[in-house]
Amino acid sequence: MKKNCFKKLVNFMLALVIFVSLISAAAIPAYACTTAHWGGSVYYSRTNLRIGIAGSAINSVLTFNLYSGITGSGGWNNLHSPAKVHISSVINLPASPSASRDVDVVGWGFGGGVLGELIAYDSMGRVTLPTSNWSSAVIRMNDSVTIWGSTASERTINARAVFYHEVGHLFKLAHPVGCISLAVMQTGGFVGNNNKSAYVMTHDANNINARW
Asked: Which residues span the domain enclosing 195?
C-alpha cells in the first residue's frame, strides 16, 4: 500500500514538473511577441509617413514598384482603425528630386554581409540608439543584385521582406526574441529562415498596437 502511494506521489510530482515547464516555455514567446519594440520619439508623423526612394536604391531587383507596394496589401497600412501607423506616400526621387519626404531609402555597398539597415540620428546629427529620440533617419539597402538570391522570384521576395522589415524599425519595432510567430520583423536573413515573412503579419500588428 505504501509503495503504491509513493508511486502515485512520484507520478504526480513528475506531471506537475512537466506542466510547469510547459507553462514557462509558453510564457517566454508570448511575452516576447508583444514587447518587441523600442522607446523614444520619432520626428515624423507615424500616421503620415512619406518615404523617398533615391536613385542609388533602384536597380533590377530593388525596383520602385517593389518599394511602393508597401502601401498596399501586406504592408503597414490598414492594420488598425483608426490608423496607428500609415505610409502616405512612396516617392520616386529620381523623378521628383525636390519632393517633400520624411526618410530616404538609399543603396549601399554592404558587400555580402548586411542586407539592409536603419540608421537613426539625434538632434546633433550623430548616429543614435534605436531606443533614443530620433531627429532624422535613413534606410540603407544592399545595392548588389546577386546578394538577394539565385532566382528572380527569390530576389524579389527577399528584397521586399528586408525593406518592409526596415520600415517596421521606423515605427520603433524591434526584432522579436524567443518568439516563434511568423513575422516580417523576424531577423535571420532571407524568407524561410527564423520564421521571417515577406509581409506584415499578426505578430507585427500586435507590436504596433503595443507600442503606439
From this structure: 34-211
